């Protein structure tokens, strides 16, 4: 909960978070190291100097660290955990659903746990159709996070608009898994195409109107193509991870990105996300609440970043996607302060 | 024996295709070694996951541009910090094509030129967008901007003078004009005196009624390139230039005019 100077209580959902283990013991050679070193460069470059972690802490942090950074110091009422598997880079995966579930078990009322699938796993693979059904049954997932640049058995990426992927979307519809979060990493196959191309989102979104496709990083590094698609398709949303930390280092860039997104998508299809532990939410929430669009952009785009819009982006939009009754949730959490004592996190 | 200055000039013609910027300006180039006619160029890309197709293009362009310098008999290109660096280094230095280097990952008829063209077009739109905005900021009406011919524009130091009635001064736009014309040449669009200054990437005139919609897209293409450029520079500094860790300036800033 973020409280404004005049006492307004802003409900905050951090819509893209992870509980990862990228420690050297879990790394499978240079790929696992290359992955986390790249993340750490994002973290170091875009965080304010006093918010930079050591690499060792960044590689592996505890459930308690995460609870403190989000729920105690980060204004976050609820977070959505997005599972990223990377089994070819990490022995036990990067943050598969089983690891993320530890935070859900510790803070069941504050955590929305999402699963994932990979069409190359077919029926019975660890990320196949049966595993998806199992995740629904065991965790009641309402969403999945898809990483299309995952390496698997010699294949180095997949597309959303293939018959194999469509079987999984059909299953999602059946199971009531309606929120499809997509991270477009640099898909290496087919190598001769634009590896960050977002065009396949367009096909899937048209063919599955009952699903909502939330494109993380707002399609960056293909913002212009993403905006175009998200304008055409009412069920394509944007997650603000990666764009947000520019608010500190390059506020003008952030302002221009926000103006574009508000112009093309409007205020109702954007979600706040720290991408924890890429960045921590506390400073992002503070800076976002204090941020104002420059007048020249307001005039040129005809948009405003009002308090109401900030409130939607920070929590109300994601609450709508996940069927959260915000008033009731506020009341529930008010009676559930997060207390961290020593090693074991606990809710009281 | 080729000189270092000649090699550096050749490297200035090698672009990061996605960022529409020479690799020399981005700080990618680490070392140039010249041993008689054998030139070795070592460069670093900002992340381990930089798209290998773009990395391949840069390595191949280095090989081609440096290879054209008189006196160069052999070129070795070494890229660092990429998940497929070994394959790329082996392929480019053996003179193999992209499809030959990655037989399992691409259609054998594929080449990278279609991909390159997609990003050359985005670069064109971004550079054009900056120039049009400078002219709007100087007070020109859209109709006057779209009526300009290349011969109407004169460079005066950092500024532009337009031979319009009345004469029009556009401050600080000279570099933007040159960058735009450079891209027109790369796309083989006409740059002769009587050519309209602003056309679509297909060389067609832009109608005044369509300009707003046209600029809406080119504006986001411009922002996207600037954003990615600053991100890539920042990632490179965070890993390899700790002293510039919190230096947030970017060559992408020249695309940011507010």
From TrEMBL, chain A:
Which Pfam families does the record match to this protein? Amidohydro_2
Question: Which residue range or ranges hold the Amidohydrolase-related domain?
Answer: 13-324
UniProt cross-references to InterPro entries, sorted A to Z = Amidohydro-rel, Metal_Hydrolase
Q: Which domain of life is it from?
A: Bacteria
Q: Is the keyword DNA repair in the record?
A: no
Q: Could you tell me the keywords of this UniProt record?
A: Hydrolase
Q: Is Hydrolase found in the keyword set?
A: yes
Recorded hits in SUPFAM superfamilies, A to Z, give: Metallo-dependent hydrolases
**Could you state a single Gene Ontology molecular function term?**
hydrolase activity
What is the protein name stated in its UniProt record? Answer: Amidohydrolase
The organism encoding this protein is: Chloroflexus islandicus
Automatic annotation (TrEMBL), chain B:
Which organism encodes this protein?
Chloroflexus islandicus
Pfam families given in the database record:
FeS_assembly_P (PF01883)
Q: Which InterPro entries match?
A: FSCA_dom_sf, MIP18-like
For this entry, the protein name equals: MIP18 family-like domain-containing protein
Q: Where is the MIP18 family-like domain?
A: 5-77
């Amino acid at each position: 909960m973020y409280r404004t100077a005049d006492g307004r209580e802003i409900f905050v959902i951090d819509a893209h978070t992870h509980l990862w283990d990228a420690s050297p013991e879990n790394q499978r050679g240079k790929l696992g190291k290359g992955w986390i070193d790249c993340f750490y460069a994002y973290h170091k470059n875009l965080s304010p100097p006093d918010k930079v972690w050591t690499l060792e802490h960044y590689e592996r942090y505890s459930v308690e660290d995460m609870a403190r950074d989000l729920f105690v110091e980060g204004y976050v009422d609820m977070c959505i955990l997005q599972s990223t598997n990377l089994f070819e880079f990490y022995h036990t995966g990067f943050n598969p659903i089983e690891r993320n579930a530890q935070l859900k078990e510790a803070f069941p009322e504050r955590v929305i746990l999402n699963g994932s699938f990979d069409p190359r796993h077919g029926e019975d693979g660890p990320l196949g159709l049966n595993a998806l059904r199992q995740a629904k049954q065991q965790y009641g997932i309402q969403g999945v996070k898809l990483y299309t640049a995952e390496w698997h058995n010699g294949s180095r990426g997949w597309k959303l608009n293939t018959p194999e992927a469509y079987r999984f979307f059909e299953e999602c519809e059946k199971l009531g898994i309606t929120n499809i979060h997509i991270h477009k990493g640099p898909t290496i196959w087919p190598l001769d195409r634009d590896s960050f191309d977002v065009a396949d989102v367009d096909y899937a979104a048209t063919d599955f109107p009952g699903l909502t496709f939330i494109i993380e990083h707002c399609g960056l590094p293909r913002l212009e193509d993403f905006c175009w698609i998200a304008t055409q398709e009412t069920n394509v949303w944007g997650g603000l991870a990666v764009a947000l930390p520019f608010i500190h280092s390059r506020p003008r860039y952030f302002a221009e990105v926000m103006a574009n997104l508000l112009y093309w998508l409007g205020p109702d299809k954007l979600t706040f996300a720290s991408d924890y532990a890429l960045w921590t939410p506390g400073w992002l929430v503070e800076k976002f609440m204090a941020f104002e669009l420059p007048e020249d952009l307001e005039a040129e785009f005809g948009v405003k970043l009002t308090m109401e819009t900030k409130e939607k982006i920070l929590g109300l939009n994601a609450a709508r996607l996940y069927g959260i009754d915000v008033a009731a949730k506020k009341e529930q959490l008010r009676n559930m302060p997060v207390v961290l004592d020593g090693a074991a996190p606990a809710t009281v | 024996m080729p000189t270092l200055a000649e090699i550096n000039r050749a490297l200035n013609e090698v672009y990061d295709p996605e960022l529409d910027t020479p690799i020399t300006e981005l700080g990618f180039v680490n070392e140039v070694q010249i041993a008689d006619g054998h030139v070795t160029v070592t460069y670093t890309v900002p992340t381990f996951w930089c798209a290998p197709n773009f990395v391949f293009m840069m390595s191949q362009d280095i090989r081609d541009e440096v290879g054209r310098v008189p006196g160069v008999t052999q070129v070795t290109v070494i890229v660092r910090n990429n998940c497929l660096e070994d394959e790329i280094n082996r392929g480019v230095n053996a003179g193999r094509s992209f499809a030959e280097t990655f037989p399992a990952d691409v259609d054998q008829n594929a080449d990278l030129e279609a991909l390159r063209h997609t990003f050359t077009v985005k670069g064109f739109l971004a550079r054009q967008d900056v120039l049009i905005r400078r002219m709007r900021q100087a007070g020109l009406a859209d109709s006057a901007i779209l009526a300009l011919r290349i011969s109407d524009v004169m460079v005066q130091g950092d500024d532009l003078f337009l031979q319009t009635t009345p004469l029009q001064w556009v401050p600080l736009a000279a570099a933007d004009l040159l960058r735009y014309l450079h891209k027109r040449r790369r796309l083989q669009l006409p740059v002769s005196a009587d050519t309209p200054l602003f056309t679509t990437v297909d060389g067609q005139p832009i109608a005044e009624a369509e300009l707003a919609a046209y600029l809406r897209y080119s504006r986001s293409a411009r922002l996207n390139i600037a954003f990615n450029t600053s991100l890539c520079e920042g990632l490179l500094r965070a890993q390899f230039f700790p002293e510039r860790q919190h230096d947030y300036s970017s060559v992408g800033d020249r695309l940011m005019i507010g």
